[in-house]
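Hi support team,

I'm filing this because I wasn't sure whether my run with adenosine-5'-triphosphate finished correctly. The job status page said complete, but I'd like someone to confirm that the output block is well-formed before I use it downstream. Pasting the exact inputs I used:
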Amino acid sequence: MPASKKRVGLEIARALALKPRLLILDEPAAGMNPSEKHGIRELIERLNADGLTILLIDHDMRLVMGVCKRVAVLNFGKKIADGTPEEVSTDVAVIKAYLGTGGEQEVRSAPGASGVDEETEVAESAARIRPSREPEKAILDVHDLSVSYGAINAVRGVSLRVATGEVVALIGANGAGKSTILNTLSGLIRPDSGSAFFDGLNLANADPSTIVRRGLVQVPEGREILARQTVLENLELATWARRDGAAPRRDIESVMKRFPILGERRQLLAGTLSGGEQQMLAIARGLLAKPRLLLLDEPSLGLAPQLVDEVFRAIEEIHKDGTTILLVEQNALRALAIADRGYVLETGQILLSGTGDELLHNPAVRRAYLGG
Ligand SMILES: Nc1ncnc2c1ncn2[C@@H]1O[C@H](COP(=O)(O)OP(=O)(O)OP(=O)(O)O)[C@@H](O)[C@H]1O
Ligand SMILES: [Mg+2]
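And here is everything the job wrote out:
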């Protein structure tokens, strides 16, 4: 038995020795791979069949939906749904909490929400693999990419393409492997196998600095701005690697025009900006590196709905100005709404792909987030 499963098995055995009438399991499958999770699921089912009552606390929706008879969903300390797995996984409030704050209008037509024409299920298998929709000529070409952290296989055989001019969304639940893919493309992590090429540059062994200079620029998850430097200093830093004389100053002025709030706050310490403003700063910094392909990792993370709107508006404008974008988001509905195409990632593998519109109405997308 792998170490993590052995440890959990031992902890459960220790609890069972106390002859519990109710066994509470707090994320028993955290950090496990799919086959270990399957083992935990079998163990829970066996204990339950033997007559033990179990309260499972977990965010792994596939495990929860597979093993529980009744599910209560908490969101920021409030119970938003309570019912059978089927009831809960088609509940509009739950879908909204997991797939993003698309506004009431969008959520009502979310993939798999009650009332959605289930005939769209049929489209699911057709959308699963759509090589014909993938561009012939791609600026980014990822093939059969696998990446691991020690024993954890975070990304397994992922293939995806982005053509010049597209906005492509890469969506998936927590821990699906989205950031791992972006960090591999930026040269920060090396893949175990497979290939990734950006405009002919082999990303599997190129230096991160070479990759950025070639025009593949990542805005990292969590923004990573320099909180103790001013807004202007953050922007100036972003242009230091460039050798094109006076142009950086002009570019800084032009990003400040695009994001007027940054112009107004240029002398303030970046750490005093609101979350949304910090995200704008992070995106502005990315733009100053003159991206030909901009990788955005969870730009809406942790932002209030109004700021999410602003960030998505900015992304659309940047795209209209001619920047190609690979957008990683947990907020699936918003990302798909602005994407030409999308890929749905589930535990390290591409589950399905298609146009933004197809995925937006595909119940399989909901299942990738909610299990069931
Ligand atoms: N530095 C690391 N060391 C070990 N495991 C890691 C490391 N970084 C990520 N992982 C694991 O790899 C898997 C994929 O993580 P990753 O950060 O790529 O997911 P993600 O889709 O970006 O998730 P999120 O939506 O939470 O940002 C997860 O199981 C995670 O625990
Ligand atoms: Mg991530």
